[in-house]
Specification:
- With 370 residues, the chain is α/β, with parallel strands linked by helices.
- It has three domains: 137 residues, Rossmann fold, CATH 3.40.50.1390; 126 residues, Hect, E3 ligase catalytic domain fold (Alpha-Beta Complex), CATH 3.90.1750; 52 residues, no CATH class.
- The strands form five sheets. A four-stranded parallel sheet has the order 2-1-3-4, sandwiched between helices. A three-stranded antiparallel sheet has the order 11-12-13, with no helix packed on it.
- The longest helix is centred in the middle third of the chain and has 34 residues.
- The chain starts with a strand and ends with a strand.
- 21% of the residues are buried.
């Protein structure tokens, strides 16, 4: 008896296509097994709304299927088409190699080929390359469409800013989404926040305290906090600008914040809640408050062991420090020492080195005349 399992997958974009739906795939796979009396269908796995180009750990049904093959006697994994298994060439090779070690092969019921022959090996490789090309090209075209959508001032998705709601509009026969002012009480809160920040010169923490004392509901938590206020005060959306691509994907899993040059900003894309002049005034005020370090007026001190000694636990450099003090005789002396600056947890001093502002003295400080 040949033991087989089936795997069905459909992405978010493909869910509306009847011939690719999960029931349609499952029906075709069961019919294929029924036509072969010596085949037994042990289990059925599926992933709904998951892209085959996404990492395997993002597809729970796929991971469960691989685990099942390692624990049970399985000969074949049946898929409707090879692109249901994976559209990532490297990942497909990796998992098929792992499965072959357990005596499992992947078979497509709609693509006739024998993976054990040279011709089948070539065909399978070509199909997998074409499938990955399709996914990569689709991602490029999708990004191009989203860029055009953003440049026209429409919403591309993501979290809706506090004080706004989404409204569907039809342009050129296509449906788009646009930001419109939300409830009057939220709009009033936004205007109050900018008023407190500019006319009353309050920082984000003091504004948060003022809103919490009045019992003003916060957007996504029980209380207002400084980070929420900073995000609002620095968001161009409140002057009517649509900003897209504040972050972008790096590799397959990570993301990074984009620079201002990389972002797409469409001015006057929707109704503003505050004036542009008020927003720029608040920004200039925040810039004037920004902490700026000053250079020491005294001559720099040379430390012989600078960049030469490191912490044996975290690997960070020790830095030289000079402090002036007055001794018991009333004479000014200079303490020179080396400090370890670290944000790494040190087991020998568990309560001291959790913040980068903490330091540790190496050896005994020595004295010298000022």
């Amino acid at each position: 008896m040949v033991n087989v399992i089936s795997y069905c997958r459909v992405s978010s974009e493909e869910q509306a296509q009847k011939d690719l739906s999960i029931p349609a795939q499952r029906k075709a796979l069961r019919s294929w097994v029924d036509e072969k009396p010596d085949h037994s269908l042990l289990h059925e796995f599926e992933d709904q709304g998951e892209s085959a180009y996404a990492p395997a750990d993002k597809r729970p049904g796929f991971c469960e299927m691989i685990s099942f093959c390692r624990r049970n006697d399985v000969h074949h994994i049946l898929v409707h088409k090879l692109d249901r298994f994976s559209r990532n060439r490297e990942e497909s090779i990796l998992f098929k190699s792992l499965l072959r070690k357990h005596g499992v092969t992947v078979l497509s019921i709609t693509e006739a080929y024998d993976p054990e022959t040279p011709q089948g090996f070539l065909y399978e490789g070509m199909i997998e390359v074409i499938n990955q090309f399709y996914s990569m090209n689709l991602a490029t075209e999708t990004l191009k469409g989203m860029r055009e959508n953003a440049e026209r001032g429409f919403h591309n998705g993501g979290r809706i800013p506090y004080g706004y709601r989404l409204e569907k509009v039809t342009v050129g026969g296509r449906e788009h989404r646009k930001l419109v002012p939300g409830p009057d009480e939220e709009v009033a809160v936004i205007r109050e926040i900018f008023n407190l920040a500019t006319n009353h010169r309050l920082g984000s923490k003091r504004i948060a305290n003022a809103l919490n004392s009045k019992g003003t509901p916060a957007p996504r938590s029980k209380h207002w906090n400084g980070s929420t206020l900073d995000a609002i005060l620095n968001n161009q959306v409140y002057v009517g600008d649509q900003v897209w691509m504040k972050s972008r994907k790096v590799g397959r899993d990570g993301r990074r914040r984009t620079t201002e040059d990389e972002r797409i900003v469409t001015e006057d894309a929707h109704e503003a809640l505050i004036s542009r002049e008020l927003f720029e005034e608040r920004r200039a005020l925040a810039e004037s408050r920004r902490f700026k370090s000053k250079r020491a007026t005294s001559q720099p001190v040379s430390y012989l062991l600078s960049r030469l000694i490191r912490c044996d636990h975290c690997g960070n450099n020790f830095v030289g420090q000079r402090q002036t003090a007055t001794n018991a005789a009333g004479k000014k002396v200079v303490y020179r020492r080396y400090l370890r600056l670290s944000n790494v947890f040190h087991p020998e001093t568990p309560n001291r080195f959790r913040a980068s502002s903490r330091s540790e003295t190496v050896g005994q400080p020595w004295l010298s005349a000022a």
